[in-house]
Amino acid sequence: MAKSKSAIKRHKQSLKRKARNRHVRSSVKSAIKDVRSALESKSGDEAGKALSKAASVISRAGSKGVLHKKNVARKVARLSRAVQKSAGKA
Prior knowledge:
- This protein has three helices and no strands.
- It is mainly α.
- Helix 1 packs antiparallel against helix 2, helix 1 runs parallel beside helix 3 and helix 2 packs antiparallel against helix 3.
- The radius of gyration is 18 Å and the shape is elongated.
């Protein structure tokens, strides 16, 4: 275990960050699942609304530093492409 005061403080900080990052990553995954389930149920406007919410959640995770900016761009692009593709079929 950490011995010095600074090491103890850094450990506490890392535990807080770990919990915060886990929560943010979990909310990103949930938002993505919502979009995918809306696409599965073939409802276009519901998928569009879910995409808007998911893009916001994913972008927020990127601005907090939980996800890399290119990872954010890739996730949003893939989701929006899937929604556009399903809208084209309908």
